[in-house]
## 1
Amino acid sequence: MKLMAVLVEDVEIDQSSDADDDILMLKHLQSLGYEYKLISWHSPPASLDHFDLCLVRIAYGYHTSPDAFLQLIKRFNEAGVTVLNPPKMINWNYHKKYLLELRNQGFLLPSTYLIEQTASAPKLSSIMAETDIYSAVIKPAISASATSTFRITLPVSSDMQKNFEEILEKHDVLVQEFMTEIAQGEISLIYLSGQYKYAVKKIPKTDGGWLVQSEHGGRTIEYQAEQNEIKVGDKIMYWLEQKFGKFPLYARIDGIKTENGFSLMEVELIEPGLFFSKNAAKIALFGHALTKYNEA
């Protein structure tokens, strides 16, 4: 039986629940012969080398202290523990500048610009005028669940400029063209070991909403991905394999339909929601992928 460290934000979670996808996933892994121990990435133990594996998939909140989180990943790796997803992928994925690399590789994305952390912020109105963007989404380059994310439209109000300056004092920031197609929903393609498995569509609330996360009123429905969408996901998986020498164990590719094709919004390799929806078959797919990944 292999001992697996499961990184979490809070170890005091109810492990008896059958209503939580993460707990159901862990119970299934236990049935496959994986003994697991919840480890807070905030306060890990001094010794890590007794673990065989480290699963990062539910390490929620890592973006609040990325340096400490990445240092822990490094410690696991140096202790000879197999980290999933692999550390090189985590180090690449935690900062959203990876989107610029994907754009440079020819993948379709909204116009996206990185503004590095500074105490002397540029004017948003100037950035938007220079880039020919009328409406934009502002987000920290290290974030999750749309934290500190807001939308602006020309002319930029003084309050929005102030919000931007406050974020930029602490973080790098992305300025990304707002895509009106988000009203039709964001498509999430779920990949395990580089293979497409299933998809969902996340839909914002109807009264002018544009954020698709459940925390912001969004809802999720089952979705049958189209071949052109899967083709984009497959190309990203192939590119990741070429870059890192292997596929990620798990990945979620988010995008939207546009007149120019499937436009990439995010590639999530750290702690993506995989939308098991308490479906035993989907959870079993994850368990099977984990077992095969370790045997490879």
## 2
Amino acid sequence: MSCNRFLFILNSMRFDDRTTRNYRRSEDKLTAVRSMLDQFVYNCKTSYCLSEYLTIDEMLVPFRGRCSFIQYIPSKPAKYGLKIFALVDAKSFYTGNLEIYCGTQPDGPYNMSSKPFDIVMRLLDNVTGSNRNLTCDNWYTSYPLATELLKKQTTIVGTLRKNKKEIPVDFQPHKNKAVNSSFFGFQKEIMITSYTPKKIKL
């Protein structure tokens, strides 16, 4: 295929009815690709059995075109792009579920909470109750999330931000704690660990 032919097809490609797009955009920022995206996510959910070890994190797909919800994340290699929350199998790296972050959606069926707790519960919706384990970073991990997942027969391992109000005072960073020391706390089904690493001097 020639370059000109490829560019023509790319420019002409559509995944929805343009005549009704403006009306549908009033309740969904992803209206131009919604039907294709929903089918893709459905296939991800139903075409593969995830292992017992799962992860949730965000990824940034590089993009600088016309889009109202492009994100800037300086810690990512691309820095600008579309942010996607994804549930991934930690063994096979298969994506089992995903959501594209659109900021605040207009009022309607796609206006959903962007709080970490709610994102995790939506992504795990079709695998809870199956005794799987989730690993995630400190943006998602919280005590309320851990207790709620336990009710759904799902465990979680993750780091906690030190400003979380549910962390006991004894587990907070302190200058008198010995380097490489660990401190453990237990409940019936939940454990918390505080580790003091060696400070990196620059």
## 3
Amino acid sequence: MRMLLAIAVGTAVSCTPSSDADPAPARPMSAVKPARTFSDAAYAKHIAALRTRLASKQLGHLAIRIEDPFVVIGDGSEEDLAGSAQTVRWAADRLEQAFFTHRPTQILDVFLFTRAASYEHGVRALTGSSPTTPYGFYSRHHRGLFMNIATGGGTLVHEIVHPYVEADFPEAPPWLNEGLGSLFEQSSERGGHIIGLTNWRLAGLQETIAEGAVPSFEQLTALDVDAFYGRGSGTHYAAARYLLYYLQEKGLLRDFYREFRAARAKDPTGYATLAKILGERDMPAFQARWQTYVTKLRFP
């Protein structure tokens, strides 16, 4: 989503905002883990400055953990923070394995608040503004993710995607950035790889399909930031999510991401790469088949 905006999402394995389920626990991966992004000295310097900042905001009681390339900060118990940090580790490891060659270039803070009231207070204290969403958001300007973890882990996984896209695919169009983020707001594993599951966005998209109001993929992929996040943004999110879900289920998503990233200069929207990966010459006909596919999906 646009950096200071967020949408209601569920947890990483359950798709309603009220659920408190967590993603599947981390499993060993065959891929070689990347070297640590930042040195011990860099983390020590960052955390020292962070503790000073937190103390000045009357937030000195927050616990801190390192989950490279993030620093995870929480107002819950050590056990709560350890569980949430595991979600961060799980998501980061599997996203890197599947998609991202480059990690964020600066240490990012992940603030996890266990209650709506502490989330509101913490965001105001740390950013100077009230949150525009009750769930959570990523702020490039404030170099961090701010989460009301009481609503579940889905927003957390969604938002972790954004700094990775920012580092790995500069100038990625909003449909891809938000399509990936929203795909993994409801996620699990298949064969050791992260996958998105159907979620709460499905019903609204199915209704929009029935109304004949879904934009063409050529239109969707061409939307700039203002248009994507403007009128019809709910449909834009859902269509992007379930287009990527389709690619995932056909075993094409990772190849699409990598080929689009490589072709970005000559294919800024990704539409040509999409047609190539699908092997389609008639994209309107494909979209009609995709819409039939989506109408047959179920959630829960």
